[in-house]
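At this stage, I needed to go through a protein sequence along with its fold in token form, as given directly below:
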Amino acid sequence: MSKRLQRLKTTLARFAKERDWDQFHTAKNLAMGVSVEAAEIAEIFMWLTPEQGEKLSTPEVAHLKDELADTFVYLLKLAGRYDIDLVAAAEAKMKKNAKKYPVKKSKGLAKKYTEL
């Protein structure tokens, strides 16, 4: 795990402990938090055309940054409950995805691997 990620985990743990919030950070609640924050990311793009979504204003990008951070924090805390290294998990998942979506079969297609 990178030093920055470990430092963030330490900061998050201290923040929650100082506020006595660990009692609320159950796996269920953290998973729900991920879902809620992901919905807030989607809300930023709701009703925008694809072109508008690619050209967010500076305040919209700032809002997106906050919502991405909130989602990341919940993911990090949830992963921590199960001692999951998110970077290692993502790297392993990309290896699985490379097998599911070989370039020759999937290049330029937006289809699930079961449809290839």
User: Anything to note?
Assistant: Helices lie at 3-18, 27-45, 50-54, 58-81, 86-100, 103-106.
